[in-house]
């Protein structure tokens, strides 16, 4: 167990009050019917925490705004910078607008075009990096040359405090959960939701889910410390940072009961299920918890009271069309299909 101290429940609640003017309390929806019953059993209660309806389209705004609200007037005068596959760039641009500062973001060349457009529309000065490691080096240069404050996409106590407000809302809306399933990239969302869950409901399991081609948290848990990856391959680019970090890893390590992996085909199939049966248009990362619930976690969630965090929806129409086509093909070939209890 790490020596890093997590935020207290009081700190999470104070953060929620601080964020109220800038974020939404996103809805939690009870998903009922044959889609759930045929896969998890009719006694299972399944809830979706719809973070795709958050301002900027993802949970990222919670941590970004919490960070910029703590900046001094001198720091605000210098502005902020960020590195992102897209969603954190949008959140940082929105956060900068909230406090009236400037923002220069580095985005990966693989970033979905709509994310670049949204970040630019929010006032961001955008630079493009070949990949994640190059992007982080570019941000270091911006900090050194321009004096901007780096707003990290997932590392810091303030990010954990911010994402924990998602957990507060969830447990307030749906008490007595047996399990929460959280998507993991660098682990920022899980760091907050996991810690809050442990504070509010000690019997509730916390399951993380990562793409098979970007399993940096799984590697870190196996090694016992924050790790990095040299190769990444997944359609869920917002769940594919090249590393996790010490504090974020520590918060996830203390709160995760287990972590499972899902394939790109399973992500696409889950996105198709969400679109066809819930009318939700999600990016691949937003389908990760559904893929896990209907796939590797199905037997453990059967008959339980479960919440899935649907983390984001920033995807362009052409990419979404391709995602759903791939998902439908996977469903026709039996992916995430209804199955008998084991």
Task: Please outline the helices and strands.
Blueprint: H1 9-19, E1 28-31, H2 34-40, E2 45-50, H3 60-68, H4 73-78, E3 80-84, H5 87-99, E4 103-108, H6 113-121, E5 125-129, H7 132-146, E6 149-150, H8 157-173, E7 179-183, H9 188-200, E8 205-211, H10 216-223, H11 246-255, E9 258-262, H12 264-278, H13 288-294, H14 298-301, E10 305-310, H15 317-332
Parallel strand pairs: 2-10, 3-4, 3-6, 4-5, 7-8, 7-10, 8-9
Antiparallel strand pairs: 1-2
Features of the shown structure:
alpha/beta
How would you characterize this protein structure?
- The protein contains 15 helices and 10 strands.
- Strand 7, helix 9 and strand 8 form a beta-alpha-beta unit.
- The protein is globular.
- The mean pLDDT is 96.
Helix-strand makeup class? alpha/beta
- Poorly predicted regions are none
Report how far the terminal alpha carbons are from each other.
33 Å
Average per-residue pLDDT, rounded, comes to 96
Order of strands, widest sheet: 1-2-10-7-8-9
Specify the number of helices.
Answer: 15
Q: How can the largest sheet be summarized?
A: 6 strands, mixed
Helix content: 40-55%
Radius of gyration: 19 Å
The global form is globular
């Amino acid at each position: 167990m790490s020596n890093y101290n997590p935020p207290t429940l009081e700190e999470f609640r104070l953060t929620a009050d601080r964020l109220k003017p800038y974020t939404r309390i996103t809805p939690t929806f009870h998903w009922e019917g044959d889609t759930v019953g045929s896969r998890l059993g009719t006694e299972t209660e399944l809830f979706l925490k719809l973070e795709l309806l958050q301002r900027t389209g993802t949970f990222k705004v919670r941590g970004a705004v919490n960070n910029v609200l703590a900046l001094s007037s001198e720091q605000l005068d210098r502005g902020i910078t960020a590195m992102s596959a897209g969603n954190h760039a949008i959140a940082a641009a929105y956060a900068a607008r909230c406090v009236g500062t400037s923002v220069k973001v580095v985005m990966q060349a693989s970033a979905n075009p709509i994310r670049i457009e949204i970040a630019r529309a929010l006032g961001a000065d955008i630079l493009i990096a070949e990949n994640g490691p190059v992007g982080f080096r570019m941000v270091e240069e911006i900090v050194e040359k321009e004096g901007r404050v780096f707003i990290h996409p997932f590392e810091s106590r303030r990010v954990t405090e911010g994402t924990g407000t998602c957990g507060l809302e969830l447990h307030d809306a749906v008490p007595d959960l047996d399990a929460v399933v959280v998507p993991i990239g660098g682990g920022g969302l899980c760091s907050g939701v996991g810690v809050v869950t442990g504070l509010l409901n000690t019997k509730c399991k916390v399951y993380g889910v990562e793409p098979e081609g970007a399993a940096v948290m799984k590697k870190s848990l196996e090694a016992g410390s924050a790790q990095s990856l040299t190769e990444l391959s997944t359609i869920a680019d917002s769940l594919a940072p090249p590393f996790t970090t010490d504090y974020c890893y520590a918060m996830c390590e203390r709160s995760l009961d287990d972590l499972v992996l899902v394939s790109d085909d399973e992500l696409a199939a889950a996105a198709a299920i969400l679109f066809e049966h819930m009318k939700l248009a999600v990016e691949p990362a937003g389908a990760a918890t559904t893929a896990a619930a209907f796939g590797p976690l199905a037997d453990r969630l059967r008959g339980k009271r479960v919440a899935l965090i649907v983390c984001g929806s920033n995807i362009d129409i052409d990419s979404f069309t391709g995602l759903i086509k791939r998902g439908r093909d996977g469903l026709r070939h039996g992916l995430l299909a209804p199955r008998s209890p084991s």
